Amino acid sequence: MALTLGIVGGGQLARMMIAPAVELGVDVRVLAEEPGMAAALAATATGDYRDLETVRAFARGVDVLTFDHEHVPQEVLRALVADGVRVHPGPDALQFAQDKLLMRARLAGLGMPQPEWARVTDAAGLQSFLDEHGGRAVVKTPRGGYDGKGVRVVADPEEVADWFDGGELLAEELVDFTRELAQQVARRPSGQLVAYPVVETVQRDGVCAEVIAPAPHGSTRLTEVAASIGTAIAEGLGVTGMLAVELFQTTDDRLLVNELAMRPHNSGHWGQDGAVTGQFEQHVRAVLDLPLGDPAPRQPWSVMVNILGGPADGTLESRFPAVLEAHPAVKVHTYGKAPRPGRKVGHVNAVGDDLDAVVYEARAAAAFFAD
Amino acid sequence: MALTLGIVGGGQLARMMIAPAVELGVDVRVLAEEPGMAAALAATATGDYRDLETVRAFARGVDVLTFDHEHVPQEVLRALVADGVRVHPGPDALQFAQDKLLMRARLAGLGMPQPEWARVTDAAGLQSFLDEHGGRAVVKTPRGGYDGKGVRVVADPEEVADWFDGGELLAEELVDFTRELAQQVARRPSGQLVAYPVVETVQRDGVCAEVIAPAPHGSTRLTEVAASIGTAIAEGLGVTGMLAVELFQTTDDRLLVNELAMRPHNSGHWGQDGAVTGQFEQHVRAVLDLPLGDPAPRQPWSVMVNILGGPADGTLESRFPAVLEAHPAVKVHTYGKAPRPGRKVGHVNAVGDDLDAVVYEARAAAAFFAD
Ligand SMILES: Nc1ncnc2c1ncn2[C@@H]1O[C@H](COP(=O)(O)OP(=O)(O)OP(=O)(O)O)[C@@H](O)[C@H]1O
Ligand SMILES: Nc1ncnc2c1ncn2[C@@H]1O[C@H](COP(=O)(O)OP(=O)(O)OP(=O)(O)O)[C@@H](O)[C@H]1O
Ligand SMILES: [Mg+2]
Ligand SMILES: [Mg+2]
Question: Quick one: which residues bind ATP (chains A, B) (predicted)?
Fold first, then answer.
């Protein structure tokens, strides 16, 4: 009777869809990789998402299938669509979040601003790209990268010699950016689309560390250009659900597309506590083709700080008494994952009127979970 | 590793603890009365909460035991405490929410303002109470009442003849009230206490229909007196977790205590979207003896309207497209319960700066779920 949403993948993004789905009244089922994952509470199946029969069995009896990650193979996705399963985002869109080379070519076709780039298949090809770009480049494996794994800044093809075995690579100019931004939009299968305010994201060691929403010093023009890029990509690629467009703001004040995520994204966690409709609720609504919620901020400023790694000497819970006592207005989110260096195990959100105070509050709270 | 909270009872109050518990990183387990209840997602056991062995088995392996309702018998609660289970609220406090006669006597001992009342055991006793109170009284069964069942306004003892078989009854003066209010406080076992702003509750046919937070036209004095009543009761009775004190504001501007609930309460649903820390998160924190969250409103006004009954001709979900399209900023909460006349099956929350607009918004959204 209730609408049923199936999520492939049991990580924290699936976990964080549980709360808004339960509140709205949507049944959530998760196909988890193994027992005890972040989204274990809603796990009704455990298995390999690369195996068609596993996913097919899971998809039976759900109204819509969506994802915690972008790793489900195209063949599996296309077979499900052929079965008549409502898959959102669908394989035609998702391929551009799965393969950065495909993405670059498609975004070029849409006329989107992006770094100069080339497909390189050997050292000679990379050397000529380097020669044309001041001797430095960012080289990326087209598939399977995350949290900066699969991204290297190189001056010599030797530095990615190990990667050429895997076939083609993406070479990009090393962008001289003043900061990184992210633009999120939500889009329904029936076409309705809403844009969130563009946010500033701060990466450390290739991993998202902090997000400020909306991006400080964001002119009307910046906000509009970012939203129009997000909208053009969502519509051009036929994205359904949440889309995040990672952007560079360059020293000469252009916006260039870095990459795409077609699912809830770390840059949108602030909205759980800072937006009228957070990205997890919005994703659930969008993929079920329900009318979208208001993406407006509830407060002038929201700041999200990731908990990376967590305490070496204990559990996240061991820090709850201290952090909750010191910061009664901060919202602590943890993912049920064991602490491990560099691992995303939770985040905190702070909201308020004064940016400096909100930044301080979020950082101070997150610091309680540090080593 | 994660903290584990066991909830006895699988209704909507247990259901609504799931979302904040998941977000904070607390494992929730529910002992449900039967399969398919509102809190089924977190149900790890099904059984009779009046049976000690059932509850005892469920309590094994949880850090703290709490409740969706107040119906677990004292003998069961006391046996669990003797076992060493951390039960919050504990039996000593909970008895005053289980029995309205016990409550009246105890509140009198605490000097709390309340309606005139008497324990009556037969028609003659009730007749003399009637004679002393202008010929009318409110008669209540001390135990097991909810949503106005177990409450009758009478002018003649005959009207409750069927109830005298059950033993003693509570007779109360028929209070001449201008409105009903509710004061919530949260209290930890270690003593920390926070008070929510007093709210106005509107009952229809003995059932909560709407809540406005904070109570309109609430003077500083009203707010302080209500908070001090809530605080005195929580401390006096040793309540742990959420306490709701239902109050009458009389025509001569006194506050009188109607009754107590020691759990999240319908009068606090607004806080899910309208408070920095909603009552469900607060209850989880309080019973686990974690520092309490900020109970302040996020916006000047919040209005909650219950969905009572639901569409006769279909499911709640059939109304989602229309309501979500018309009200993108309203938050819809449904409980996974089948529509049935008068049944609480969900609620909507609206928040904002302008009370009239917020009231309109919440009522208009809830109306989409009407028959
Ligand atoms: N062309 C570039 N010029 C400069 N810096 C870059 C470039 N491409 C990537 N980076 C830096 O490396 C980071 C990671 O790159 P990218 O987002 O492509 O990798 P990823 O592993 O898919 O990341 P994640 O999954 O964490 O978003 C970027 O956030 C940015 O800081
Ligand atoms: N003494 C009284 N004088 C006037 N009205 C009363 C009195 N007692 C109760 N009422 C009315 O009846 C309603 C229900 O009473 P009460 O709260 O005691 O019953 P209940 O069934 O336990 O309610 P619920 O579980 O819905 O809160 C009150 O909200 C109030 O409107
Ligand atoms: Mg990236
Ligand atoms: Mg009542």
Answer: 100, 140, 172-175, 180, 258-259
Residue B112 to residues B186, B243, B254, Cα–Cα distance (Å): 19, 15, 12
Given a cut of 90, is residue A148 above it in pLDDT? Answer: no
Residue of chain A whose Cα is closest to the Cα of B20: A19
Measured between beta carbons, the chain A residues lying within 8 angstroms of B10 are none
Confidence band, pLDDT 50/70/90 cuts, at residue A371: confident
Distance CA B282, CA B19 (A): 12
- State the distance from the centre of ligand 3 to the C-alpha of A361, rounded, in angstroms: 26
Residue B148: its pLDDT value, please? 79
List pLDDT tens digits, range A280-301: 999 999 999 999 999 999 999 9
The response to whether residue B360 sits with its C-beta less than 6 Å from ligand 2 reads no
HEC string of chain B equals: CCCEEEEECCCHHHHHHHHHHHHHCCEEEEEECCCCCCCHHHEEEECCCCCHHHHHHHHCCCCEEEECCCCCCHHHHHHHHHHCCCECCCHHHHHHHHCHHHHHHHHHHCCCCCCCEEEECCHHHHHHHHHHCCCCEEEECCCCCECCECEEEECCHHHHHHHHCCCCEEEECCCCEEEEEEEEEEECCCCCEEECCCEEEEEECCEEEEEEECCCCCCHHHHHHHHHHHHHHHHHHCCCEEEEEEEEEECCCCEEEEEEECCCCHHHCCHHHHECCCHHHHHHHHHCCCCCCCCCECCCEEEEEEEECCCCCCCHHHHHHHHHHHCCCCEEEECCCCCCCCCEEEEEEEEECCHHHHHHHHHHHHHCCCC
Enumerate residue ranges in chain B where pLDDT < 50: none
At residue A146, the pLDDT reads 76
Q: How far is A332 from chain B (nearest CA, A)?
A: 6
Within 8 A of A321 by CB-CB distance, chain B residues are 290-291
Residue A69 has pLDDT above 90, yes or no: yes
Distance CA B331, CA A287 (A): 18
**Ligand 4 centroid to residue B148 C-alpha, Å:** 7
In ligand 2, which atom is closest to the CA atom of B115?
1
The pair of structure tokens assigned to A210 is 């902090």
Looking at residue A190, its pLDDT comes to: 97
pLDDT recorded at residue B66: 98
List residues near ligand 1 (CB under 6 A): A 115, 138, 140, 145-151, 172, 174-175, 180, 203, 206-207, 246, 258-259
Closest partner CB to B25 (pick from A292, A321, A335): A335
Mean pLDDT along residues A252-257: 96
pLDDT tens track for A15-49: 999 999 999 999 999 999 999 999 999 999 999 99
CB contact under 8 A, B293 and A20: no
A171 sits in which H/E element: strand A169-172
* Domains identified in chain A and CATH numbers: 4-87 (3.40.50.20), 116-173 (3.30.1490.20), 177-367 (3.30.470.20)
Quick one: pLDDT at residue B158? 96
State the angle between helix axes of B91-98 and B100-109 in degrees (0 to 180), rounded to the nearest 10. Answer: 110
Contact B46, B32 (CB under 8 A): yes
ipTM value for the complex:
0.96
